[in-house]
Amino acid sequence: MDLNPAQRQQAPEPPRRSFGADLFVLAAIIAGLFSLIAMGKEMHQPFQNKVEINLSPWMLPYYTMLSFLRGAGAYVLSFLFTLWYARWAAYDRRAERFLIPLLDILQSIPLAAFLTPIEIFLVGLFPHSEMGLELTCVIVIFTGQVWNMTFSFYYSLKALPDDFNFVGKLARFTGWQKFTQIELPFATKGLVYNSMVSMAGGWFFLSIIEAFQLGDQDYRVPGIGSYMSVAKEQNNGWAQVYAVVAMIVMIVAIDQLIWRPLIVWSNKFKIEDTEAEYQDRSAVLRFFSRSRVVAWFGGIFNRLVMRPAPVKLDAAPVVVARKPSMISSVFPWRKIFFILTLLLIGWGAWNVFHLLWEVAFSEWLTIGRDLLLTLVRVLCAVGLSTLIAVPIGVWIGSNPKLAQYMMPLTQIAASFPSPLVFSNLFFLIVLVGGNLQWGSVILMMLGTIWYILFNVISGASAIPQDLRACTQLTHLKGWQRWRTLWLPGIFPALTTGWITAAGGAWNASIVSEYLQDHNPPLQATGLGAFISNAQANGDFPGLAAAVLAMALFVVFFNRFVWKRLSAIAQERYQFLT
Amino acid sequence: MPTTTPPIVELTGISMTFGESSGDKMKVLDDINLTVQEHDVMALLGPSGCGKSTIMRILSGLIQPSSGVVKYRGVPLDGVNPGVAMVFQNFALFPWLTVRENILLGLENSACTAEEKAQHFQKIIEMVGLDGYGDVLPKELSGGMKQRVGIARALIMEPQILCMDEPFSALDVLTGETLRNEIGRIAMDPAAGFKSLILVTHNIAEAVYLARNIVVLAAHPGRVQKIVPNPLPYPRDASAPAFQQLVAQIHAILTNSILHDEPSVAEPEIVTPERIEEAAYAPLPNVSLGEVIGLVQLLHPESESIFALATRLKKDFSTLLSIIKAAELIDLVETPGQTVRLTKAGVAFQKTDLKQRKKMMHDLLLELKIFRHIFDKIEQADQKEITEEGVLLDLVQFFPNERPKNLFNTLVGWARYAELFSFDRHAAVLRKFEKTYLGKPPASRLTSAA
User: Which residues of chain B make contact with A574, given a CB cutoff of 8 A?
Assistant: First the structure.
């Protein structure tokens, strides 16, 4: 979930991609995931995990800690994956053509729809073990975190100016030196920012996966998510409040103790020679920078990892011609790898085809209708959020002082996993006479509105002062001013917000159209509810069909609506520099 | 030209303070009194930091002064000045509107019919030489053409006062020159429709070329130094002796205001906390030590007129004055009258090598009280380090008219060169300067490289 409009602008154009490649990649993802189910079903044995949750508030720090550790573990995984995948895509031209469309699609499909296949497969891999469940949680959170980090690192590598590489070559850097001294520093700013956004995206999945139940199977693990779900089961209102407070405290603490200091620190990697007028400050960073212990550890880390002593001290500057390795030149590794991949995809496709064969025509019609209904909800959620967030965002963004405080706040609000409070909020909707058919739009908005608000604020505060002065001096009033200045001025940022918000809304549809905390679960008519239902009833053909439909549709919608809009915005409404 | 009609705009006792927190408070304008009569062309001229753009924004009602009254046609201003149109330094064109739409913004709320608007538009677009560019987007235009659009948008409003905020400084020299001549022509053209023109500039020749009245401003805090009437007949000839004479006269006023009106170099003496007196501290001009050293290097041993020096170095006059002022503060140059020459220390500095220069600079800066004060504070501190917050508070106390953050940055930059103390930005502490050395480079590497 990419919040940062500036990042998008400076990113170079990704390699041209053909639509065929997209289709292929999408098919491969879906085939792969359902092969996993098939394998998982084979391995699947009845599994009864009894999660014991103590609703005492004194236990909450412990559960919060567990949730945090899962998020952190997933983050470490995301980070390693990012380094590997992005470097591979950036330096292997042949692989790049598939890796980047793959990443793009994985970023835009609603992954919440894939929770079941992933869960079933992973639990199947580690039957009867707590570790299996834990690993599943971590991997699911990882899938919610990783994509935009990888994109950010890939773009940084692609945008690395040649001069820096030349410096590295002339100084005869080893591969590791090049990585720690050139690639990482250059990418740090984007990586830190996207890490923050990633962690936020991860909490959304954490809140669902910790409380995951499938039919009569209970896959819950101790953490904030399961605490909340047990509190709801037992109708313990206070415990629910505690859980929400604990989540907020955790998010704010992580923001203040980890991300703010890191963001301020990462400013030193800006590739600019001038100092910015306004300097971000962080009291925590200041505190740590003044500590001797931290400096000591930093020094050790620097010596051991970042700048290890040269291995070959007396290496003469000899130009070594790269010898072609005997093995790789004779044995066609690449081809074999490629063929194996194709075979695997083929086998997966066969599985999916089999599953889909069982889906009746009438069921496809239902899926089509539900897809339309959910689309209407998603668009309503985005539209209503826009109507609310644009005036507020412009008002905040045009007061620099206010914007400075509100931007981090909206970011924190966006990190709160809204599914945690869906059923509580729905209770309020019922109080004012609403039902889930329309109420789920409000639930979706709870997640979408922050992304739009954030982007509108950042867009509005980037409008040059002189343009505002000009509208004042030409005496433009009310709507004239909106039409000439504010709306066009924020439009590029708004489209970025829309893309993120719509992605979030599709994800949220899975949990907002189907409230499983109620007994029996409350449902709206929509594809999200259809998917949740299929999960609950173990209807795998229906699930495969619905997930396929949703993923395909979202990818197409992204390509043909959001990305087009965004391109127009960049072309027409960008400020002159 | 004497006139009996009431002045278009009258500023009385205008003062302006920016920043609320005590660490960031700065007085930018102090008791400004100005009157803009009809048919005046007024230039606001001064060094950076004198608040000339702020005056223009207050006059047009875009910002409210901290105290004082702005009157438009004798009535105190409430909100935006209805008689003002403005031309901006960076054009302020709406990138999503065509040239025509940008220009017609000026008439958006006028009572004219569509036909009148079209006529008006045609007249203006011809006047500024943009005929045929109506349907082009701003990004397709060169800088000079963009500024023509900006001028057209202001002219079409037929304002009482046309305000121009450094309209030529974002343009290259040739384009700026062309446009300046055209503004001179338009200013004389009654068909242009505006009554008076106010121009903000830091370019003396530009002010003398265009203005009837030149308001010379002084900085820290911004105030009116002198109003110089310019009786030269239009069109003016920049090579005429009378023109040159007026330019020289304004140079002299600026030199005096920047170099000689401020407190002189602090007497070297040992500072104890009890003896700190505000007046004994001289504020540092906001220039880098690199510029100061460059100046010292380029100076001839005999004294040279500052005006001639600015021409020789192709340096903006008021910027050069700030650099000279800094050099004088450190005691590398002295400025008798309108000239500058090296001191003994300056001559020695010019001749020596980098290592000696650092050492000299170290000693010279310690002669300045503010450096001595901070240096001693660091020496006395427990861990040989003091916090930024503490230093900022001191700066606020010693220099109430300076922006402490800027001053702090200048101070740190100078001190770092002279190896007095260094600043750790993340920890926000000043430390005693220590030679940092990242371990010995391997000997074999050095030999192999050689």
Answer: 95
